[in-house]
């Protein structure tokens, strides 16, 4: 069946964006470095350089506004889905979607990973630049889900809505704990127990995995195991908590009597079984694998690697 024209357009834009995003990702830092270099010529030179940047930015802002007036709604949505174009639209206050719509889209992008932890996140509201979220299920109490909040949810929200000033976590109604916990406070509790840092690493090779296939990858010096279940990708550190051995050679299996989509990973050394879809929880004993978030960032499949944190 032949692809529809709009589908071909979407694919072409995504491919072009992926190629160009690497070039422009650090554009802001390069501009700032050039401005700093101009300071060598004195305060007047710096002021003129800044004025030049403002004039060019205003010119391109006016051109972007004209483009949005000339194209139809589908084209506007297509432009807004491109990371580079969306960032320029945000800078000039031209993004077609309001903050709440963009935050909702950001949460949708991380919801599959939260679901792998047996949890979910809901937007309570956006007021005066503050995003209020409610986590449900095990995300509210699991330490590794706290890391997920920092590496996935916060990152996705700030990428989609950089004007957001703060993210606050509202306790679920059934909880008797305090009604409002700031994201900084939550992160501070996690950091106090075990300091960590983390970063997103592009691993485009993940896209080559077929459903039911398991692959090993070296990401930022860490060995990980990734597998695809249906259309969803899951990644874990290559470490069996039962026997302390590598999971190299592990295979994904469906348990007898379980529905389609069930997937367990069997350690080839000790034969312990882990639920791939639900945060790597062991199904025949205690413990679980250490999950790592997998998201599409700047058009590339990327893995969040928290250093020094065990879920």
Can you describe what's shown?
With 311 residues, this protein is of the alpha+beta class. It folds into 3 domains: 5-91, no CATH class; 99-195, Fe-S cluster assembly (FSCA) (GMP Synthetase, Chain A, domain 3); 201-307, 3-layer Sandwich (Rieske Iron-sulfur Protein). Helices cover 40% and strands 24% of the residues. The protein is built from 8 helices and 14 strands. It has helices at 5-24, 27-38, 43-70, 73-81, 83-91, 99-116, 143-160, 183-193; strands at 119-127, 130-137, 166-170, 180-182, 197-202, 214-219, 222-229, 232-237, 251-253, 264-266, 273-275, 291-292, 294-297, 300-307. The longest helix has 28 residues, at 43-70.
Present the secondary structure layout.
Layout: H1 5-24, H2 27-38, H3 43-70, H4 73-81, H5 83-91, H6 99-116, E1 119-127, E2 130-137, H7 143-160, E3 166-170, E4 180-182, H8 183-193, E5 197-202, E6 214-219, E7 222-229, E8 232-237, E9 251-253, E10 264-266, E11 273-275, E12 291-292, E13 294-297, E14 300-307
Parallel strand pairs: 2-3
Antiparallel strand pairs: 1-2, 3-4, 5-14, 6-7, 7-8, 8-12, 9-10, 10-11, 13-14
Helix pairs in contact: 2-3, 6-7, 7-8
């Amino acid at each position: 069946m032949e692809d529809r024209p709009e589908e071909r357009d979407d694919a072409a834009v995504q491919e072009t964006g992926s190629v160009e995003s690497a070039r422009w990702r650090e554009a802001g830092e390069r501009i700032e470095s050039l401005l700093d270099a101009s300071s060598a010529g004195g305060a007047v030179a710096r002021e003129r350089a800044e004025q030049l940047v403002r004039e060019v930015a205003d010119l391109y802002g006016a051109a972007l506004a004209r483009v949005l007036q000339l194209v139809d709604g589908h084209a506007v949505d297509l432009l807004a889905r491109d990371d580079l174009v969306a960032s320029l639209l945000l800078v000039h206050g031209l993004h077609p979607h309001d903050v709440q719509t963009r935050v909702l889209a950001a949460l949708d992008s991380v919801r599959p990973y939260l679901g792998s932890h047996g949890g979910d996140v809901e937007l309570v509201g956006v007021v005066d630049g503050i995003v209020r979220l409610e986590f449900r299920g095990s995300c509210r109490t699991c330490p590794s889900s706290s890391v997920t909040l920092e590496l996935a949810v916060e990152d996705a929200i700030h990428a989609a809505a950089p004007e957001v000033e703060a993210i606050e976590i509202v306790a679920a109604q059934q909880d008797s704990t305090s009604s409002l916990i700031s994201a900084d406070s939550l992160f501070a509790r996690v950091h106090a127990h075990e300091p960590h840092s983390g970063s997103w690493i592009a691993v485009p090779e993940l896209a080559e995995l077929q459903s039911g296939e398991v692959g090993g990858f070296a990401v930022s010096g860490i060995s990980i195991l990734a597998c695809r279940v249906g259309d969803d990708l899951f990644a874990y550190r290559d470490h069996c908590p039962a026997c302390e051995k590598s999971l190299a050679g592990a295979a994904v299996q469906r348990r007898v009597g379980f529905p389609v989509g069930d997937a367990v990973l069997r350690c080839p050394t000790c034969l312990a079984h882990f639920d791939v879809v639900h945060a790597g929880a062991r199904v025949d004993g205690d413990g679980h694998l250490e999950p790592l978030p997998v998201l599409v960032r700047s058009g590339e499949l990327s893995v969040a690697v928290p250093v020094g944190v065990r879920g």
